[in-house]
Amino acid sequence: MAVSYKDYYKLLGVERGARAEDISKAYKKLARKYHPDLNPGDKQSEEKFKEVNEAYEVLKDPEKRRLYDQLGPDWQHGQQFQGAPGFGNAHFTFNGKSFDGSGFSDFFETLFGGAAGGAGSGRGTQFGPDPFGGFSARQRRGRDVEAELPLSLEEVARGGRRTVTLQMPQGPKTLEVTVPAGIRDGAKLRLAGQGDPVPGGTPGDLFLRVRYLPHHLFKVDGDSLQCDVWLAPWEATLGAKVPVPTLEGQVELTIPPGSSSGRKFRLRGKGMGSGVNRGDLLARVMIKAPAQLSAPERELWQKLADTSAFQARA
After folding, report:
1. Angstrom distance (rounded) from CA 121 to CA 136
2. What is the CATH classification number for the domain harbouring 116?
3. Is-above-0.90 flag for pTM?
4. pLDDT reported for residue 201
5. Of 228, 261, 257, 225, which is closest to residue 240 (Cα–Cα)?
6. Which residues pair with residue 138 across a beta bridge?
7. Residue 77 scores a pLDDT above 80
8. Tally of structural domains, the chain
């Protein structure tokens, strides 16, 4: 099978002597332009996006870039080359190698054996230095997989073991996962060897990305939690002891007399996180007025209004 040379510099639109920051800048610009999310259904953009990522995978890595520059467009004819320290008198044999056509291009996998790590890695045979100065084939590795792990705030606070069922390419998979108490939203849990399998090789890894589920009482702000505490007008005026919800259950909060709506009370160590780094819970006072009044109640409220010197808008 013929494998054509790819000019990675041309794909990124940079000179061969371009600096690392120029290569990174060019890649980010093209990645935004051809990203599949911005070009839904556009197969040409999708292929261009893959080529741009492949080129950047090589040119961002000094060792890969050095190897690529040494071989150049004549790599098929000059399979013997003098590599940099660590490569020795390496000898690449490309003829007769088969390709599955997935992941990175055949050209990339022939030279580098697939990307090292990451969600797009693990296609093709990888090569690395052996003790005798040549190159030895390492085992194929399956593709890493990322999935979402939705958790309630109570589950985050407790931590511990959870059973999750995921829809994987090869079918449903049920796993036991240990969730660290106080894990942050967006954090990833790595389950080694639970990614995509590959015939004759080792499976990739599974990464579970934590997502906080919305809560009916609490709002999350970094490591802090916020909730509202509703008071009757007389409780806000005279003071009271009222229950306040936390992730571990209710606690009693003392409301001092004259607490206006919007005032916040800090309950230390009742927020997100764990141990000494756990955040606080901010309980905000909200005053609720009765929607309906009996005749005696209305009379008392009117008497208070007539006798009070308090001015709310003063």
Report:
1. 19
2. 1.10.287.110
3. no
4. 84
5. 257
6. 126
7. no
8. 3
